[in-house]
Amino acid sequence: MSETITSFDIAEHLETDADIQAFLRETAANGDVSDFIHALNTAARAKGMTEVAKQAGVTRASLYKSLADDGNPRFETIAKIVEALGCKLVVS
């Protein structure tokens, strides 16, 4: 009997703003900078890249480029994306 392996995409399971916020909180608390940028990409895909780009005041193409694996987003861009996802950056 052969096994079928399917890929797992967490974005498909982030269904509410609360899910997205909890996911980003967990990543910020336990990951590094690249993990957090990857989590922002995942959260933006879950919410809809077009909607997040619109709320963040950036183009969809620039959002994809900023959050790509080789992207290097500016802090201002990260702050806008975080806010568009219903969160805020806090230093504690």
UniProtKB/TrEMBL annotation:
InterPro entries: Cro/C1-type_HTH (IPR001387), HI1420 (IPR014057), Lambda_DNA-bd_dom_sf (IPR010982). Coiled coil: none annotated. Residues 49-92 form the HTH cro/C1-type domain. This is Addiction module antidote protein.
